[in-house]
Amino acid sequence: MNARRLIPTATLAGAVTLGLVTLSACSSSDAADTKSGDRLAVTASFYPMQFLAERIGGDHVSVSTLTKPGVEPHDLELAPRQVAQLGEADVILYLKGVQPAVDEAITQSGVKNTVDATSLTTLEKHGTEVGHSHDDGHEDGHAGEEGHEEGHSAGEEDALAGKDPHIWLDPVKYAEVAKGVGASLEKADPDNSAAYRKNTDALVKELGGLDTAFEQGLTGTATKTFITTHAAFGYLAERYGLTQEAIAGIDPESEPSPARVKELRTIAEHDKVSTVFFETLASDKTAKTLAADSGLKTDVLDPLEGITDKSKGDDYIEVMQSNLAALRTALGAK
After folding, report:
1. CA neighbor of 26 nearest in space, from 1, 59, 53
2. Distance CA 117, CA 119 (A)
3. pLDDT, mean of each 10-residue run, the chain (334 residues)
4. Partners of 235 in the beta sheet?
5. SS3 state at 169
6. Taking the CB of residue 6, how many other CB atoms lie within 10 A of it?
7. Minimal CA–CA distance to 142: which of 152, 130, 154, 124?
8. Residue 148 class from Cβ within 10 Å (0-12 exposed, 13-18 middle, 19+ buried)?
9. Are 65 and 44 in contact, with CB atoms under 8 Å apart?
10. Residue closest to 175 by CA, chosen among 210, 221, 207
């Protein structure tokens, strides 16, 4: 760990500005005097990375996030001050491909310990507008039908082209990322490796329980198809045998074509879809219009890109449990 970047615990209160803990350097004498209270300075790009850092790091890390609650992470732009502060982190956790501005700033930061979550699991290609064919019978447009793609190193150019970055919405893949994050924190702060390993094991076990709950809760449903605002749930759909039909593509702010809206109405009728899902951080206008025109209900399926006072839960686990309950109702689970 770089002693120059250690943050004394006593100085943390009130140090948050624009969602970032001020990562100011302390003198060597400060570090010596407060060694028992020093914490690893971890900067997370957005909520899914923040959750892992906090749960795995526990009391041994000070976690700041680049994305304020309520901000749509795909659209994040960094202020010069945030870019400068980024270089003071001991460890940066991010997910390449979600936030282009963050990817660029991290490259320029010079921080040695940068952890790209996409390098910790395998990414897949999920169609942004995977549909059904109704010409000669029914064909499931199963999300992720292209199959698994090989993982990649953080330095590969164009490694994410056409691939879905929303790996955190699959508890199994998220657990793989958690293991990698835990190993990275151990490497950055070997003095506390036992604690990081213990916390990682506990979180992986909790994510395993969440996976079991989804698997059991989504069997025997009346339909396997759900309609949602943007194509964030491809991994979840593939994991539990569902079919995601997205109004927009990977970008939650993109507008669907008239042909796509017409197709979704046909799909809803054919597959007995009851609900159109929208989310908390993006506009619900298109989803509600489609639902009203098709006589469908609306509900929230949260892509967990941030936690706000509108979130149906206080953390990742609670919101995912709410997502499961919403899916069970919409899909007609027994």
Report:
1. 1
2. 5
3. 41 35 32 50 97 98 93 87 90 94 92 95 73 36 35 43 90 98 98 98 98 97 92 95 84 71 90 89 76 87 92 96 97 94
4. none
5. helix
6. 23
7. 130
8. exposed
9. yes
10. 207
